[in-house]
Amino acid sequence: MLDTIPARPASGVALRRPARVRVRPAEGRAGNLRYLLAGRIIPGLLYSLLGYGVVLNTIRLAETLHPATWLTVMAGPVREGLFAAFCLIPVVLFVVRPKPRAADRRVLPRVVAFAGTAILLLCGTILPEGIALVAIPAWVGAGCSLVLVVATAGAIWGLLSLRLSFGIFPAARTLVTTGPYRLVRHPLYLCEILCGWAMVVAEGHLVPLLVVLVFCGLQLTRIRYEEALLADVFPAWRPWAAGRARLIPGVW
Question: 136 to each of 72, 121, 133, 204, how far by Cα in Å?
């Protein structure tokens, strides 16, 4: 059984944390093996396979480019190269990051987190297009390519700022307030949502639209779970969060 984490208010009276926040189990062979499998090997393989597919796609695009302009480069190798980096950087982080101080071990938060991660990665790789909803002008597609490049670069900035605190499932390792986290609470999710909508607008097809709507719902739910955990584990989280929006300053 996992212990709840005690909190200490200003009065000095210890309270019990809600059951959703639980410290990791005591060290042992079974616990270490479980973390090795679920915390390192499985997510590392997932991101490695997707990153490998994106790298191959990047090479293919580079070989088939006609005389390049900055727009064609944005639309192809640069965008795909950044997405490959976004897939492959976590592979290293999964290997070297420490076990979390605390984690939400309920099934639903973990399912939401895994589904939100998998859906975005599928959007950028093997997702079918489905029915065409509208014909997208070339200039709109070029603008969406630029948004994809900027948002993917921002997501990489978020990953590099999180470093060893990055994870798929709700967990607390350290409280990160530097880099893009000085601006909003969840810059990585903001950039991922921007990427998803840029893909939808650029393609104008039904399946990506439906998938991105589901993805946005999952990410907003994921934010709620993660914020509850961070508030329980880090006393500094509430004053830091009070000074910045979750995703869009002045809106939410």
Answer: 16, 23, 9, 6
Please state, rounded to an integer, the average pLDDT across all residues of the chain: 80
- Please write the tens of the pLDDT for every residue from 126-147: 566 667 667 778 788 888 888 9
Query: Is 1 domain-assigned?
Result: no
Q: How many Å apart are CA 60 and CA 82, to the nearest integer?
A: 15
* pTM, to two decimals: 0.82
Distance, in Å, from the CA atom of 76 to the CA atom of 15, rounded to the nearest integer, reads 54
How is 3-20 classified by DSSP, letter by letter?
A: PBPEE--TT---EEPPTT
Q: What is the distance between the alpha carbons of residues 80 and 86, in angstroms, rounded to a whole number?
A: 10
Q: Is the residue at 91 inside a domain?
A: yes
Split at pLDDT 50, 70, 90, the class of 16 is: very low
For residues 210 and 8, give the distance between their C-alpha atoms in angstroms, rounded to a whole number: 44
Tokens representing 221 are 């739910």
Q: Render pLDDT for 205-236 as a digit per residue (tens, 0 to 9).
A: 788 888 899 999 999 999 999 999 999 999 99
Residue 2 included in any domain: no
Number of domains in the chain: 1
Closest by CA position to 232, among listed 99, 102, 100:
102
